[in-house]
Amino acid sequence: MSPKITTELLKQLRQVMKSPKYVQEPVQAYILPSGDAHQSEYIAPCDCRRAFISGFDGSAGTAIVTEQHAAMWTDGRYFLQAAHQMDNNWTLMKMGLKDTPTQEDWLVSVLPEGSKVGVDPFIFPADQWKRMSKALRSAGHDLVPVKENLIDTIWTECPPRPCKPLIVLDLSYTGVSWRDKIVALRSKMAERKVLWFVVTALDEVAWLFNLRGSDVEYNPVFFAYAVIGMNTIRLFIDGDRMMDPAVREHLQLDSTLEPEFKIQVMPYGSILSELQAVGAGLSPKEKVWLSDKASYALTEAIPKAYRYLTPYTPICIAKAVKNASETEGMRRAHIKDAVALCELFNWLEKEVPKGTVTEIIAADKAEEFRSQQKDFVELSFATISSTGPNGAIIHYKPVPETNRTLSVNEIYLLDSGAQYKDGTTDVTRTMHFGTPSAYEKECFTYVLKGHIAVSAAIFPNGTKGHLLDSFARSALWDCGLDYLHGTGHGVGSFLNVHEGPCGISYKTFADEPLEAGMIVSDEPGYYEDGSFGIRIENVVLVIPAETKYNFKNRGSLTFEPLTLVPIQTKMIDVNLLTQKECNWVNDYHQKCREVIGAELERQGRHEALRWLIQETEPLIRVQ
Amino acid sequence: MSPKITTELLKQLRQVMKSPKYVQEPVQAYILPSGDAHQSEYIAPCDCRRAFISGFDGSAGTAIVTEQHAAMWTDGRYFLQAAHQMDNNWTLMKMGLKDTPTQEDWLVSVLPEGSKVGVDPFIFPADQWKRMSKALRSAGHDLVPVKENLIDTIWTECPPRPCKPLIVLDLSYTGVSWRDKIVALRSKMAERKVLWFVVTALDEVAWLFNLRGSDVEYNPVFFAYAVIGMNTIRLFIDGDRMMDPAVREHLQLDSTLEPEFKIQVMPYGSILSELQAVGAGLSPKEKVWLSDKASYALTEAIPKAYRYLTPYTPICIAKAVKNASETEGMRRAHIKDAVALCELFNWLEKEVPKGTVTEIIAADKAEEFRSQQKDFVELSFATISSTGPNGAIIHYKPVPETNRTLSVNEIYLLDSGAQYKDGTTDVTRTMHFGTPSAYEKECFTYVLKGHIAVSAAIFPNGTKGHLLDSFARSALWDCGLDYLHGTGHGVGSFLNVHEGPCGISYKTFADEPLEAGMIVSDEPGYYEDGSFGIRIENVVLVIPAETKYNFKNRGSLTFEPLTLVPIQTKMIDVNLLTQKECNWVNDYHQKCREVIGAELERQGRHEALRWLIQETEPLIRVQ
Description:
Chains A, B: It is found in: Cytoplasm. Chains A, B: It catalyses: Release of any N-terminal amino acid, including proline, that is linked to proline, even from a dipeptide or tripeptide. Chains A, B: It comes from Thalassarche chlororhynchos. Chains A, B: Homodimer. The structure is a homodimer. Chain A has 19 helices and 28 strands. By secondary structure, the first copy, chain A, is of the alpha+beta class. In chain A, the strands form eight sheets. In chain A, strands 4-3-2-1-5-6 form a six-stranded mixed beta sheet, sandwiched between helices. In chain A, a hairpin with a 3-residue loop joins strand 25 and strand 26. In chain A, helix 14 (about 325-350) crosses helix 19, helix 16 (about 440-455) packs antiparallel against helix 17 and helix 18 packs antiparallel against helix 19. The interface of A and B includes residues 469, 550 and 578 of A.
């Protein structure tokens, strides 16, 4: 990976930052967040402005360019990647380390007195605007909206915004019709006494209407907004995709409907003016509900007194608790996914010793096996196929320049997943195709102990996921090891592989309590820069637990792994496991054998079945 | 405990809420927080206004009185106590339970349109003002400051504000002179570019000037404010205590000093006008640093643009990290405290079977033994001496109406501590003087496992205490048990027994990272309403840990127990402990024997020494 040369681009950006053509007054700094107008984590190529200007294309990062400086804030997953992808014009700001300044503090320290800091108000979330604006103002600077995105003015070859056909999801997948979802949403709106709800997140629009798209790679979403009133439904979407008869029928666009279920289709670009019209027509006490992460531009369209902002929308929370149809779909998807991985690992065991399998070949092979499964749509994120030192780059994606050959001497880490019409998967396994060292096994075993500690945890109803994060670290901490990322994230149901409002992380305190039916990942790791990476990840379903005393009828929860792929026993130092942990591994492998074994049998994949049987031999612990 | 009859008082309060003598416009609700003008947790009798109006005298709780309703918000420690102390005029709002409304939501649900909600601006913290005011405004109501405290207008027998003599602490106790503390504070002020710092918390004033008082029971503090400029020191304090020659010499009030260390003594009541004068004299960019928990009245004295507010002040943070003199003092205090408790428990073992020892007698006896120790000043909080069902009232204090006799059939819980001139103690032990049931032992052992999990935890430098809270609960959770309070709080050095900015709680996310030298409590528990309470509490010192891999030189921390009092082995079901936990108990008891044994020997307390030896016999675990 050689860094992108950005000298000329930065020069151009600094010119437009002063150009009266684009800014009312010159801005001394310009902030480039990661997201798009929907605050998406994964974005379309036309929205990859931060990557365009800096070269750094990780999923999280904020760039700030001033007249003298260019700085990039990103988190522990991306320290190595960002350092590799950016040239000397850029300073890397490692978030989470003690001495790293916040963006606000840094701006205040470098800006000349009375500066203007520009930002695209369509991309900047309202909650961040508030924080940033306050910090700048108290230091004598101003945060100002710059209507035209300044990167777009210098990005001559910016690709067009995608506008791909939609997929209709029927009731057997979603469990609830879009009409019933609207009814439930309106009842939440009535509870909070709001008259309007603005749907800004792409996955929330998709979930609400039981539609999927492919405008953004890996995320089955489409560019759209929706504004739901007590008697109206407005869907803002471009292109001829509303001409598709299946979509028209699904949305009943041509049927005679009760007016409150009649969907008005409007151009994507008209959201701001329509929202401004809604805002202008409000009477006192009439409120409009928005996510506090909605863009500053849309939030400002509603006069302050009429806004009702919450960190999580009712759609976000409803979407996180999977119903029976969704849960069953997720189970099916994970069984198919495990079949593909058994095929892959069986194939790797044979091929790796020949020295012909690169990271890219392995990733492609994983996709090939997945694509053979029923209802496969696409991958759910860029496959992290990494061997040896590349494994320490937490969100690594192999490219020709970095592509290593798998060998019997290095640890191989594969973090991958897929979108099936019935569910989304995300699984990490760390394998050795030769003989791992004692140290590698030791580290792997601590990570496994952390994985089990979370997966087997029992906790009272109402517990937030962040309270479980330290369980995943305890065994590592005891030996002076740690990892610089959270332990788990919410997973969508044939939707985004990362979704709120729940998760397991030391960083998130605003998460909603875990509830039966929520689905999260459990993925502790350990990374040794320049040497190897280890991560063990299952997607797990929150289920009721049975305990001796049941929390005085408050009830309790635990996790059930949906991912059923063997954890390589060769990497485990059995003597470091307790008997309970050893039993967990054996029970888990027994379940893999039964469930995935039956499916491999059914699909006639006998060689992969033999591999599965061999990989799920029970561990025996010497007392 | 019979409830306080409040019908007449509430009637009077509702009258003054409408009286033009006290309010510009009638207020439809009046909020009564717990604290005093310094946001103290423990308050002087003249400040116990919430207890006066409601009867509920726990340390935490907020009352709100409207024309129709009277409601009290308190946390899990006080659910039972509040229910017992309040009459039917009051509704108990159980904080932390899912269905309990917030104060804001409740107000919005009960108030008539366009209401005014009154509050004493001297008592209401600025951060709460902001939150409450915003929530009320968005629902069409107003939060208004009512200058005269409305309770004071109806509280005819309100006691006067205490004004007791001061204690001078010399360098052997404090380790750092007040001048050096001022220098360090000014350097922090220079770092943040502020010109003034306002000290509002009583323990911060006491710590800064190396003075102690006794204006508030259990907390060695005195009513005062301080305003520190870059070249001036103003101390706002009443009474003739500044006439004390020892105090005058300590503060060098009569010496020829560099002007920047000359202390100007001013009347306590003049803080507001002085601060307003400071505020009026500021030039642009000149800032005044206040805690965001300072009162709304003082915060408003400084125009908004000149305020610099932080959740924790630099004094709060410096005070939390104990220096070598303070740590040694805390060690000495805990050794003396353990001697007193060995005497007490030895005495109880003999006396309880006679049936003559009540909770109050036991608490008095504990105080008597403590008072025999060198440098004893007073207790550090009201002794929780509780047997049987009273143990389930988490912050129980025995009074004649509830006073139970200790017996060989019930669990006894003693949570107590003292102020010594060299340190503050806080220890809980749970004992059975007969034969505990298998269930009682089971619960005790889970609590012990949680206590050990925190005490023996190893974690990287920079970890916040709240990340350790779940370790204390894991063993309880596995069986469906939990406790409704945090696991630990910061402990002062001959100062408040509860202090910030660190702690171990699922509730606090704003805590500062744990650092070597900080001192916190480790006190998980289990409570069975109507039956018994169990809690095991040590005060522990944060110390560097040695680990195999040392977090890539980030360094690691663990805890060292300062409390050295035997944990009753009779209550332990050894078979529920792991070998590691069993070793922890045996090592701990070995240290108790060595350190406390030597002191008991030195003090010639041979009977208590024999008790200690017997109570610290090693546990043997059957494999």
